[in-house]
Amino acid sequence: MTTGQIRVAVVGTGEIGRGWAALVASCGWPVSLYDNDSNRLDEAPTEIAARARALVDLHLADGEAVEHGIRRLEVGRSLLQAAKDAQWIIEATSEDLRNKQRLFEVLESVAPNARAVTSSSSGYSNQEIAAKVYRKDRCLNVHPLNPPELIPLVEIVPSPETDRVLLQVVRGWLRALGRIPIMLKKPVQGNVVGRIAAAVWREAIDLVQKGVIEADDLDRAVSLGPALGWAAAGPLLSYHLAAGERGVAAFFQHLIHTFESLWGDLADWTHLEPDDQQALIHAVERTYHGQLSRIRSARDRRLAAILRGLEEARQDGGRITAALDQSQIPTDELDGVEPDETMEE
Q: Of 264, 249, 11, 253, whose CA–CA distance to 117 is shortest?
C-alpha cells in the first residue's frame, strides 16, 4: 500500500456503507465489504464504483486514484474474510442496537488486530454499542453526513474508554480522506448535527402542515436563506458577525427579546400523527414527482461547487479566514453545508 493508506472494511452496504466505501475507494485505499444480505452485497460494488467515479466528474477526486481504488475494492463472503486484515472497520448497519452489539462482539474474535472499530450510528452511543466487548479502547462512533462521499463533515464521538491516542489516529485518517472531523466532548442523542437538523425539520414540517408555505418554497427558504450563510460561518459566528464590532453581546442586548418571542411560538410537538405523516408525504411527493433523478444530480453538482468555492476562499485566506484559523476554528468554512435537492437549475 502507498504510504499513509490503510486497509478499510465496511460492514453494511446500505446508503451510508456504500458512501463510506465510495469515499475510501476514491482516495485509492483498499476497501472490503460485507453484508448479511447477499443480494445487497452483490449489488454494492457497481453503485460504489459509480459514486466514486462521479466524484471525478464533480472535480472532487483524482481519476487515477479512483480507478486504483475501484480495482482494490473487494467483497467478503464472510465477516472474517472482509475484516481480518483491516486496520479500520466501519460499521454501517441499520439502527438496531442488539445487532450492532453482536457485530462488535464478533469482531473481537475475527479482527483482533484492527486498530479501530467505529460505528456510523447517531442513534446509539458507543458506550451502548460496545457495552459487551473487551476492547473498548479501540471503539468509537464516527458519524458521517449523507452522502458520506460528498459532505466533508464527520462527527467523532468517543466513549470514556476510547484510547486518546487512537482519536488522533482516526482524525488523521479522516483528514487524509478529505474529511473535516469535529469532536463531541460528550455523547448526546442524535449527536450535534442530527439535533440541529431535527429542530429545523420539525419547524419546516410545521410550517408546511399549517399552510404557511408550500414544500418547494420551504426548501428554498432554508437552502437559500440560513443554510447558505451557515455554509460560510455557522449559526453562532453568523450572529456574532451580524452584530458588528460589538459582536454577539450587542446582538443579545438588542434582539434577544425578539428571539425569545419566536422561541415561544415554535413547534414543540414530539410525535407526528399518521395522518399528518401521510399529508407531508403527499405534499413532498406531489412537489417533486418524477424529478428525483434530475434533482439529485443537480444537488450533487451544486454541493460540489459550494465545496470548491469554500476551499478556494479558505486558500485565499489571508484576508477573511486568517481570523478563523487563528482562533482554532479552521472548519467553519464548511460548517452547515447540507445537500439541497430543491433548487431548480
A: 11
User: CA 86, CA 290: separation in Å to the nearest integer?
Assistant: 41
DSSP code at position 263: H
Nearest alpha-carbon partner for 182 in 140, 142, 163, 154: 154
- Name the segment(s) of the chain with CATH classification 1.10.1040.10: 192-334
At 128, list the grid cell: 451502548
Indicate the CATH number for domain 192-334.
Answer: 1.10.1040.10
pTM of the model: 0.85
Is the N-terminal amide bond of 187 cis, ω within 30° of 0? Answer: no
Residue 331's nearest CA partner among 171, 158, 200, 121 is 171
* Strand stretches in 125-229, DSSP E: 139-144, 153-158, 180-183
DSSP state letter for 334 = G
- Output the CA–CA distances (angstroms, integers) from residue 228 to 231, 308, 334, 339, in the order listed: 5, 14, 11, 11
The tens digit of pLDDT for each residue in 160-173 reads 999 999 999 999 99
Task: Spell out, as residue ranges, where the chain has pLDDT lower than 70.
Answer: 1-3, 316-345
Query: Using CA atoms, how far apart are residues 187 and 204, in angstroms rounded to an integer?
Result: 26
Distance (Å) of CA 48 to CA 26, 40, 201, 325: 10, 12, 29, 35
